[in-house]
Design brief:
130 residues; mainly alpha; 0% strand
Length: 130
């Protein structure tokens, strides 16, 4: 074993058992790395999912904000519609009073109107016959 280029030190070959333990040790380390790698992938996957959920929650928040603005806007529209309906009801009542008043005036003048009409007809007949 000792050669001229080794400086007098003796190099030994690793024994079969020692080599086997190194291979086994390397296999165990590789398995641990794979396990860590899988664990990291799962962790990153969960992190990505959590971020996705966070984005969806933000979108839901925006939707609810817009929805509440629409509810407020619709409330204002309903208030305006209610106000318009009340004004229309008052105007209808006033219109009914005017119609009743006009009917009373016409009813009271019905006799006068008939007299004038009869006079016009008589004058028309007299003028036509003469």
């Amino acid at each position: 074993y000792g050669g001229a280029g080794t400086g007098g030190a003796v190099r030994r070959r690793p024994r079969n058992g020692s080599m086997m333990s190194q291979v086994m040790s390397q296999v165990v380390q590789d398995e641990e790395e794979l396990k860590r790698s899988d664990a990291e992938k799962r962790a990153f996957g969960r992190l990505s999912s959590a971020r996705g959920v966070e984005r969806e929650i933000e979108k839901l928040g925006e939707v609810f904000t817009r929805f509440s603005a629409l509810v407020v806007e619709q409330g204002e529209s309903l208030r305006l519609i209610d106000q318009d309906v009340e004004e229309a009801a008052l105007e209808v009542e006033e219109g009914q009073r005017h119609v009743a008043k006009t009917y009373g005036i016409v009813k009271g003048n019905r006799g006068t109107i008939l007299k004038i009409f009869a006079t016009v007809v008589v004058l028309g007949v007299i003028l036509v016959t003469t």
